[in-house]
Amino acid sequence: METFDVLRGGFTILVVIGLVVSAVGAASIETVDEGHVKVVKYKGEARGTFTPGDWYFINPATQSTVSINTRPQKMTFSDQPGEGEKNRDDSIKVITHDDVRVPVNLQVTYKVTDARQFYETWQTHENFRARVLYPGVEDGVLEVGGGTESTVIATDEGRSVMRKAAFDELQERAEGTGAVIMSVSIKKVNLPSDITHAAAQAQAMEQQKVAKQKEIEIAELEAERKLIEARGDKEAALERAEAYQHEGVIEAMYIEKLDETDTVYIPVGADGLPTHLDVNTDEDE
User: Where do the Band domain residues begin and end (predicted)?
Assistant: First the structure.
């Protein structure tokens, strides 16, 4: 009976050990989802990365991993609650040069290119958005938007200036942190209704200005073409005038003209006065 109890106790211990080993083994196996990179930490410090496609083994006692999404990420700033990152208006509020408050809706696209560096700097996407994207967009847009008239800020020119300012500011802030800014797009510029018409007129004037500039460029090219052509004609005329001063050229031209007619000139008499014969007479006459 005692022997049986000993065996049963030993079996129980083996089962427990087996379960522990299995649990530890399962915990030490790591896989990586597509579009992600796992940062490997040793005692809390980032030491390396795991990429999709393989199974990896870690020591759970001293190592752990953090998964970082490396797909392109978008952050939206919108004046419509629920469209942006928050359940409230989080658009960029620009006070234009003529003191008009204009909400600007934007979207930023970025991507993690170095997961380890990104983790060491920001730890999470949420931190990156809060510390880089929002303040960077705000500083870039407000700086240039504040110096722009309300009738210009919604035009192509105004949008382009704000987009470039935001992109440059974000690119500078993200540099060297494991992330790259891919694009900044201006989704909407919400002008007050009483300024919308004036802005539309400004946009139309801008387009007319561009069209007029194109017309001027085309006219200048045509004038240049005609000038080059005229110069060529003048040079050819000068060459012909110089050639006409040579006696041999004049004689050759005289003979050529004679060949083109049906008249033969014959010098007769003491003075060499010419007479002529018409050689274009029908033989039947």
Answer: 27-203
